[in-house]
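Ribosomal protein L21 structure dump, as promised
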Amino acid sequence: MPNSKGYRAGTRHKYRRGFRQHGMPGLSTYLRTFKLGEYVDIIANSAIQKGLPYKVFHGTTGRVWAVTPRAVGVEVLKTVKHRRFRKKLYVRIEHVRKSKCRDDFLKRVRKNQLLVQKAKKEKKKPQVPKRWPKQPREGEFVKFKKEQVKMLRPVKFELDF
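structure tokens r here:
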């Protein structure tokens, strides 16, 4: 039998629901509000077949460009070989959730704004901190008594016949 090339082919594990997460989504899914320009993650909910995005877009992040009563228009980047194309698609709200990709950035912006306001009040030049990659830990000295140190050596291999 030849392998099928259907719309949901090869999604057995991709669209799988979590343990004890099967069935219809809760009401909070339908009460979320989406605004234009907001970042959202497309995560297909296999319990709802209407408005299901194509399998290529499962797990992608995009921006909301349209809001309708039951769906949102999401603009995503689709990678084809070495190129990236902008794709606009409508996805029902059951298959979309707000993205946390900008949370760290927005938190940092708020923190920097507070530092700038504080510097203006003190009439100083604002010093906005730079982001640094995690640095190696500081070195430490280990204190011990000579009696506590034991030299460990491998046991000599002997054949016992």
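The beta strands are 39-42, 61-67, 71-80, 83-92, 96-98.
lmk if u need the other ones
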